[in-house]
Amino acid sequence: SSLGYEYWSQVWKFTTADSPIEFNLSQNYPNPFNPGTIIKYSLANKQIVKLKIYDLLGKEVATLVNEEKAAGRYFIEFNGNGLSSGIYFYRIQAGDYVETKKMIFLK
Hints:
Layout: E1 8-14, E2 24-25, E3 36-43, E4 47-55, E5 60-69, E6 72-79, E7 86-94, E8 97-105
Antiparallel strand pairs: 1-6, 2-3, 3-6, 4-5, 4-7, 7-8
C-alpha cells in the first residue's frame, strides 16, 4: 500500500433482537491489542460511513470503511501488523454522527 505497510480488516453485519438501533461506536476489544482487535458500530439509518484510524499526530493510517451502509449493527476485525506500538484513534463519520475513540497497539 502507499502507506508502506499492509493491514487487513473485515466487516460483518450482525442482527440482534434489540431495537431501535442508535448510532454508536463501541470501544475496541481487546484494548490494548496485538495484532488484532474488533471495533463495533451501529447505524440508525442508511448513511455513507467513513471509519478511519489515525496516529497520535492525526495522520490517517488506515481506512476501514468508506461506503454506504444500511441501518444495522456491524463489527470490524482490524489487524495492526505493520503499525508501530502506541496510541491510535479510530473515528466514525456517518451523516451528522461523528465519534472518536482511543486504542492502544502493544507489540
